[in-house]
Amino acid sequence: MAFAESPAIASEAFTAKVIVVIDGDTIVVLKNNQQVKIRLAGIDCPEKSQPFGSNAKQALSDLIYRKEISFQIVAVDRYQRLVAHLFFNGDNINKKMLANGSCFAYRKHLEDKSFIFLEAKAQKAKLGLWALPEEQRIKPWEWRKLKK
User: What's 123's domain CATH number?
Assistant: First the structure.
């Protein structure tokens, strides 16, 4: 059975090296010589084709690319990606992405309400995507609906 298919995977913690940053909220790690795709829990970054999409990817890359990180798995999504909270040097990377204005709190799949506070704080300070003109700050889930 492959690592990502293990039925006991949710709520487990692992450490692995980040080998690819796909976008601002999706990475690939190397675990037991397998590539495993991970979606960051509780956040949604602008899509690559959206304003600030490449900035969000760069922000995540600056934080964790080629680093050994810990992740706490919370689910497996419909695309068979692990959904997890990422940690590096004791910092919750998901929360750091919110705090630096690189993403939106993904309210549809949100368990930790502090994510909304971190988003509001970044918005008030006009950090990251919050420095964009309002018409360019389209929530990624709305952007995806428009593109279908």
Answer: 2.40.50.90
Give the mean model confidence (pLDDT) for residues 45-61: 96
What is the distance, to the nearest Å, from the Cα of residue 96 to the centroid of all Cα atoms in its chain?
10
Query: Residue 9's pLDDT is what?
Result: 53
Q: Give the separation between CA 20 and CA 126, rounded to whole angstroms.
A: 29
The rounded distance, in Å, linking the Cα atoms of 129 and 73 is 27
Among all residues, which ones are annotated catalytic?
39, 47, 81
What percent of the chain is modeled with pLDDT above 90? 80
Q: How far apart are CA 50 and CA 129, in angstroms?
A: 11
Q: Domain span at residue 52?
A: 3-147
14-42 pLDDT, tens digit each:
899 999 999 999 999 999 899 999 999 99
| Domain total of the chain | 1
- Fill in the DSSP letter of residue 67: -
Residue 7 and residue 70 in contact, taking contact as beta carbons nearer than 8 Å: no
